[in-house]
């Protein structure tokens, strides 16, 4: 990866760019429905929010909270987030994924970040291009994963996100926030991650297993595990489980189906099994996550 003080945009090989996950999840401008008490939760996406009215505080479990006031952008960090909002807080918010194949955010170190909107007027301009495209389909809320869109509207919406991310990338560069440096790595690791990310969710842990993936990439499971841990600090099974958890969280936030329907769609034998599996990984039940996550 090359980064210079003159060019704010990182350079990767084409195959690395194509492996990134760039996805618009949510865009809204609204007041209220935000946690006024301190809320601590893991988020599997990032958010960029312009404070229109009131205030917002954000931090992590290891970082002191920062305060964003009207006219300031707040760029949230993916992962564990401590947040609190005033009762009159109004936000213009873009929620997205800009992730490596491992699920790690491409821009992570140095976040959360607060800066004046006057320092980056183009960011609000691009954000406001996203809003009407989202509102045309879902008003204020997540883009439902099962929602049917025609190609033109889908491409226009996703392209609006890419224009927003270009503007945001330039701002982050100016503020000293740089992207993750993707290493060359073993091609079998990239191939294994691609298989996991492309798999249908009910197949994860069933027909798509650590052993079946090792066979597809023509390595022994021991060799693949060694490479995977060395490059990503996770085993193949942990990547499979993380993908399943992320999809479960999406379903809880996006599709608004019953817990029973979600459990079976994810391949669980019963809602109780899904409940215990989810709680073990997030320290909250699926219902608790749905209620709190909708405020993200």
By DSSP (H or I, 4+ residues per run), the number of helices equals 10
Query: What sequence of helices (H) and strands (E) makes up the elements?
Result: HEEEEEEEEEHHHHHHHHH
Instruction: Strand order, main sheet: write it out.
Output: 1-8-3-6-9
Radius of gyration: 19 Å
Q: Taking all residues together, what is the mean pLDDT? A: 86
Assembly state of the chains shown: single chain
- Helix- and strand-based class? alpha+beta
Largest sheet: 5 strands, antiparallel
Distance between termini?
32 Å
Q: Specify the helix fraction band.
A: 40-55%
- CATH fold name of the largest domain: Jelly Rolls
Shape descriptor? globular
Number of domains: 2
How many β-strand stretches?
9
CATH architecture of the largest domain: Sandwich
Supply the CATH class of the largest domain: Mainly Beta
| CATH-level-4 superfamily name of the largest domain | Jelly Rolls
Low-pLDDT segments: none
- Beta content: 15-25%
Domain HTH araC/xylS-type: 203-292
Protein name: Helix-turn-helix transcriptional regulator
Keywords: DNA-binding, Transcription, Transcription regulation
InterPro entries: Homeodomain-like_sf (IPR009057), HTH_AraC (IPR018060), HTH_AraC-typ_CS (IPR018062)
In a few lines, what is going on in this structure?
Residues 203-292 form the HTH araC/xylS-type domain. The protein has 296 residues and is of the alpha+beta class.
Describe the structure.
The structure is a single chain. The chain has a five-stranded antiparallel beta sheet, with helices on one face. A four-stranded antiparallel beta sheet has the order 2-7-4-5, with no helix packed on it. It folds into two domains: 14-174, Jelly Rolls, CATH 2.60.120; 187-293, Homeodomain-like (Arc Repressor Mutant, subunit A). The radius of gyration is 19 Å and the shape is globular. It has helices at 14-19, 121-138, 151-174, 187-198, 210-216, 221-232, 236-254, 259-265, 271-282, 286-293; strands at residues 21-31, 39-43, 46-53, 56-60, 63-68, 72-75, 79-85, 90-99, 113-116. Helix 2 packs antiparallel against helix 3. A hairpin with a 2-residue loop joins strand 4 and strand 5 (63-68). The model has no long low-confidence stretch (mean pLDDT 86). The chain contains ten helices and nine strands. Helix content is 42%, strand content 20%. The two termini are 32 Å apart. With 296 residues, the chain is an alpha+beta fold. It comes from Thalassobacterium maritimum. Keywords: DNA-binding, Transcription, Transcription regulation. Residues 203-292 form the HTH araC/xylS-type domain. InterPro entries: Homeodomain-like_sf, HTH_AraC, HTH_AraC-typ_CS. This is Helix-turn-helix transcriptional regulator.
């Amino acid at each position: 990866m090359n980064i210079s003080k003159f060019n704010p945009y990182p350079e990767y090989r084409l195959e690395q760019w194509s492996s990134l996950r760039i996805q618009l999840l949510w865009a809204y401008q609204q007041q209220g429905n935000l946690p006024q008490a301190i809320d601590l939760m893991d988020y599997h996406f990032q958010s960029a929010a312009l404070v229109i009215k009131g205030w917002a505080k954000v931090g992590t479990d290891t970082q002191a909270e920062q305060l964003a006031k009207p006219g300031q952008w707040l760029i949230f960090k993916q992962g564990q987030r401590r947040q609190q909002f005033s009762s009159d807080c109004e936000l213009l918010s873009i929620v997205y994924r800009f992730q490596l194949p491992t699920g790690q955010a491409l821009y992570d170190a140095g976040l959360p970040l607060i800066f004046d909107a006057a320092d980056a007027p183009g960011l609000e301009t691009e954000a406001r291009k996203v809003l009407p495209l989202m509102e045309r389909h879902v008003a204020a809320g997540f883009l439902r994963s099962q929602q049917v869109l025609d190609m033109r509207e889908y491409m226009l919406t996703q392209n609006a996100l890419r224009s927003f991310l270009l503007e945001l990338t330039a701002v982050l560069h100016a503020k000293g926030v740089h992207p993750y440096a993707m290493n060359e790595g073993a091609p079998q690791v990239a191939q294994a991650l691609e298989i996991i990310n492309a798999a249908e969710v009910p197949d994860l842990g069933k027909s798509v297993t650590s052993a079946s993936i090792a066979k597809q990439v023509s390595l022994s499971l021991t060799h693949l595990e060694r490479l995977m841990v060395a490059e990503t600090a996770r085993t193949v099974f942990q990547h499979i489980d993380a993908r399943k958890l992320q999809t479960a969280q999406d379903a809880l936030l996006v599709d608004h189906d019953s817990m029973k329907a979600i459990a079976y769609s994810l391949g669980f034998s019963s809602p109780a099994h899904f409940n215990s599996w989810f709680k073990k990984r997030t320290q909250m039940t699926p219902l608790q996550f749905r209620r709190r996550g909708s405020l993200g």
